[in-house]
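#struct-pred

JT: dropping the chains for the assembly here, can someone run the whole complex?
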Amino acid sequence: MASASSLPVRKFDAVVVGAGGSGLRAALQLSSAGLKVAVLSKVFPTRSHTVAAQGGVGASLGNMGEDNWHWHMYDTVKGSDWLGDQDAIEFMCKAAPEAVIELEHFGMPFDRNDNGTIYQRPFGGHSQNFGEKPVQRSCCAADRTGHAMLHTLYQRNVFANTQFFVEWMALDLIRDAAGDVVGVTALEMETGDVMIFHAKATLFATGGAGRIYASSTNAFINTGDGLGMAARAGIPLEDMEFWQFHPTGVAGAGVLITEGVRGEGGILLNRDGERFMERYAPTMKDLASRDVVSRAMATEIKEGRGAGPNRDYILLKLDHLGPDVINKRLPGIREIALKFGNVDCTKEPIPVVPTCHYQMGGIPTNYLAEVVVPKDGNPSVIVPGFYAAGECGCASIHGANRLGTNSLTDLLVMGKSAGDSMIKFIRENNTHKPLPADAGAISLARIAALDATTGGESVHAVGDAMRQTMQAHCGVFRFPDMLEEGVTKIKEVAERAKQLEIKDKSKVFNTARIEALELQNLIEVAVATMVSAEARKETRGAHDRADFHNRPGYVNGRDDQNWLKHTLWYKDGNKLDYKPVNLTPLTVESFAPKARTY
Amino acid sequence: MKFQILRFDPDVDQKPYFKEYDIALEPSDRMLLDALIRIKSIDDTLALRRSCREGVCGSDAMNINGKNGLACITKVSELKEPVVLKPLPGLPIIRDLIVDMTQFFQQYHSITPFVINNEPAPEKERLQSPQERLELDGLYECILCACCSTSCPSFWWNPDKFVGPAGLLAAYRFIADTRDHATNERLDNLEDPYRLFRCHTIMNCVDVCPKGLNPSLAIGKIKEMMLKRAV
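RK: done, full complex below.
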């Protein structure tokens, strides 16, 4: 194996790790500015997980009725259970319409209204006039919005001549003695070669890590690589206890069924055929926020009102929409229901269960996508040269719970914001900071250890243990004793992950090695999640502690006195720190925390 | 369940060979990809691409019992044993079920796969009627899995010169878009004995497309436009 000093080095102005929506949007900005940019991706760009987004991208275009960014902002703040930073939320909601229009100009095949404007559908938690009634804000391309968006962004990058490194996996972040980020090491899958990408500015757009759970809507590639790399390099991870369980994953398969089904008029039923959401959310009903709907479904199942022989799922009924609407607006869902649920949804309901879907936490950033960490008493000091956007970043726009459609809005707005911030930084710091002498040493050591280990455990066995532990101890409902036990267990799994053994020793497209490296990233995320969740003594958004239900003085189980703050987890010693939530928007009045009803 | 999988690792093998697997599937292993992951948990040297496991990313295209398809949406219960798995035909094998897709993507890139419109962008969206938008259905949904192009004999013979069904479907996707103003240039780009006209409507592309798309129809429409233009 080569020594660190002999590793090949390539220099770029900017390196973007990840070619999903946010990475591609940032790359477009950078390429169009004439900068030399390298985009690294484990998969061909159009195979990134953005491709699986279905229901739409949220923006207050107002094509279907009155709407404005201020209402969108209110819904997002409320959806976040007030844990979202209101400057970032204002920034996103204000920028959303332009981001969507731009995409339309790039050629995105949005659905259309009779007057030729973009069609928008209702979605969970999105309302008119500060919670009064549902609004149609989700701009969509049937139920394939993510696919249409990702392909459009890739196509536009072809136009802009962006340079891609396809099937390259980034391994580790390179920081110099001052802590500044100067690039990454990466592995070319086809050859097994490791190279250093030396950059003036580095963006992580590596997506989520939903594969820490056994039941997940996420693609296999969603292994939190950016989070693992950041954690190993001493960057804390923010709000990792907050994981969104999407209400409608196909029971048994985990495959996503868009909230757009309910947006178009689909409803959830329990075994008695009751539309139970009317009890939990009298105004928004089936279109309440995702944490609320998932919790209601889990409650129905727990109390014996689940459908099916084992009473362990809920029914999503949409046959009353008629085949015409289903074929026009939800054709992909019909396919998925048939393939994975064995039902023809134009005739019968789809069996669904809450399924891990989205990571609200991530690498701490501000709304300019600059990575920020606590230093000398200041909770948010910029790490020069380092940026994060999309699901791997935490600005924090989504706080404790993300609204449907806001993930695509986030990746467009924050991807572009990251690109702009990087352009500015590169223009102001137009030389490469020198690489540290040992750049790459950690990566080479990790690979050498995998090649040398014998008598260790398989990636499959350790990965299974991680996924089962997370599922059992840190799901929709969380219990204090289960969390405590979960912390012990996940630390044990993390120890086991230090002794992974792979049989495949080939240099050529060694997927066993890739999966081992991915598991090392997932483990960081799993430990961060469990430790952060155990510590947070309240119920907020997607973090539901059963011991804080109906506690006097707690609003919806929330403890704003002590817990209206962001968690920061450090890999080193599993240390936890906290920082305040930014309740001050950029221009408008703050939305003060209050009870959350739908 | 019995499998015969074509294996090849250039690091150690002189040439490709079939390896047999006989494995017990769990009831939750409903799709071929589930079975392959089960095999991989026993033999981690088996190399394949996969990601979304729901038929939208296009990673796990392979030749399944003689026909191209996506492993993640192919039910094991519908497969004849032994299940014979090979990499997509016609492209160089990198390793096992992983092929080098460079030529496939070169052809996709050759059709200028982006909307060309040099008019100043309006403040709002460019308007498009639902009927105009309908023209893009059956075209934009392509996932670039390459099942079609690698089942096409014309593409096997001339992968460097014939655009292939996936690339031509994409070409028509932009021609059909009312927002694109480069139809003539796009037709010029395809006016050549190979790029378009090597399609002999063998229709394998239609037969194998896992998304139910019809590249042949799109190709026919381009040919028709060429003809009209020539008259």
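JT: nice. Chain A has a mean pLDDT of 97. Chain A touches chain B through 59 residues (CB under 8 Å).
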